[in-house]
Design a protein that fits this description.
The complex is a heterodimer of chains A (216) and B (194).
Chain A: H1 5-23, H2 30-34, H3 38-49, H4 52-68, H5 79-98, H6 106-109, H7 135-146, H8 150-161, H9 166-173, H10 177-200
Chain B: H1 5-17, H2 22-34, H3 36-52, H4 64-75, H5 81-104, H6 109-114, E1 130-133, E2 139-140, E3 154-157, H7 158-163, E4 167-168, H8 174-192
Parallel strand pairs in B: 2-4
Antiparallel strand pairs in B: 1-3
Helix pairs in contact in B: 1-3, 5-8
Classes of the chains: A mainly alpha (216), B mainly alpha (194).
């Protein structure tokens, strides 16, 4: 999945050239620039907003903002990181606006420095990759991610779904590297706890987060 | 060095990231050999990372890319695009009109069939057209297009490709993509009073 170093540096040079040309007036090249990242922008806004329609609106707005502000992009940065940062901000802004009255899940208010103790020790070794071909499994995974508190969800999304580095994740969210690591650990362990009963056993059994609190 | 279960859980994420000093890593590996619970936690956590990191995990809604591009189009400054757009639109309208005229005349029935290749420019991509996609890519292509980078491709109809969120290749599908977007552009320009 990860590009080799050679490919990614070639890609970066190509991207830098595209950006320069767009800034010089070849606006239509923006389609080529954005195409490889459209999906990532959507996934980002979706993971934050948890609703396809809102996610699409926010994704469109984020891409428009990227286009209008391409002059502000600093060339030493990575375009993908910059773009995802815009998407995160756009989605966060909408979330605050639309769900200002909604309480954050309890896990968000817990002390993140405290140790997290796994609740479930189900042995869950074999994950055939075809598992993801099943829509109901993907839905369960998405539901589990959606049940995490915002700060855990965002870190997990950028690091494990979007494959940003720890440093890039920290920068995109405006938090420290140490916070990223702490939240990432907790997000991963919580997801494991939520999914282990289902993935280790049968999916017919109800997932444990069904009884958790979901205030939205 | 001996580590407890709690220490293993605290470091499990860093263990997966490969970010531990060798001593701690060795101590954890030693612990994991003996402890079934911690092994289950490690395996499960690794599975979580693998599952969510898979591209198939999140589906983009059908037509997302097309809608995004239309939105972008309306935001793009077009110093000379306006007049050009009108010219192309008029030309397309003229072609359509002429083909209607010609089509209704029985003497030119054969000509209408032969002009089939000219007409798609004013129509959307034929939904039953067979195209190829790769699971790695985001675009669908006419078989044989030079821009298919992946070797593993599957064939399906354009309708299904679009339903799965693929967008037409700008090179081999150019005739559909360009004219299609110009047509959608017309009403917006009229509103803008250009």
């Amino acid at each position: 999945m990860a590009l080799s170093a050679v490919e990614s540096s070639a890609e970066k040079i190509n991207e830098a050239m595209l950006i320069r040309r767009i800034r010089n007036g070849e606006h239509e090249l923006f389609y080529d620039l954005i195409r490889p990242y459209e999906r990532r922008v959507y996934v980002t806004t979706f993971a934050i907003l948890r609703n396809p329609a809102d996610a699409e609106d926010a994704a469109q707005e984020a891409v428009l903002k990227a286009f209008k502000n391409i002059g502000q992009f600093r060339e030493e940065a990575r375009f993908s990181t910059w773009l995802i940062q815009i998407a995160v901000n756009e989605a966060r802004m909408r979330r605050r606006k639309e769900h200002a009255d909604v309480m954050e899940p309890i896990v968000d208010r817990q002390d993140e420095e405290g140790n997290y103790t796994p609740r479930d020790f189900a042995d869950w070794r074999e994950i055939p990759s075809e598992t993801l071909e099943r829509k109901e499994i993907r839905e369960k995974l998405i539901e589990a991610l959606a049940s995490l508190g915002e700060k855990y969800r965002e870190v997990f999304l950028l690091r494990d779904v979007q494959h940003l580095s720890i440093e890039e994740t920290a920068k995109s969210l405006g938090i420290s590297v140490a916070s990223v690591k702490t939240r990432l650990l907790r997000a991963r362990l919580m997801l494991r706890d939520l999914l282990a009963p289902g993935l280790a056993g049968s999916w017919t059994s109800k997932l444990s987060f069904a009884k958790g609190n979901k205030p939205w | 060095m001996v580590v407890s279960c709690e220490e293993v859980w605290r470091e499990i994420s860093n263990y997966l990231e490969g970010e531990l000093d060798p001593n701690l890593r060795a101590a954890m590996a030693e612990h994991l050999r003996e402890c079934k619970h911690c092994t289950a936690v490690l395996d499960g956590t690794r599975n979580v990372v693998q599952l969510y990191g898979d591209e198939r995990m999140f589906e983009v809604p059908a037509g997302f890319s097309g809608r995004l591009h239309r939105k972008l189009e309306s935001a793009m400054p077009r110093p000379r695009g306006g007049a050009f757009g009108w010219m192309v639109a008029f030309a397309a309208a003229a072609v359509l009109l002429i083909s209607f005229e010609v089509g209704s005349s029985s003497a030119f029935t054969r000509l209408q069939l032969r002009s089939e290749h000219a007409q798609p420019a004013a129509t959307p991509i034929p939904p039953d057209m067979m195209v190829v996609v790769s699971d790695e890519g985001r675009t669908f292509h006419v078989a044989g297009c030079k821009f298919i980078h992946d070797k593993q491709v599957r064939t399906l109809t354009a309708r299904d490709a679009m339903r799965e969120g693929y967008v037409p290749c700008v090179r081999c599908m150019r005739k559909y993509v360009d004219v299609g977007s110009l047509q959608q552009k017309i009403p917006e320009e009229r509103e803008g009073g250009e």
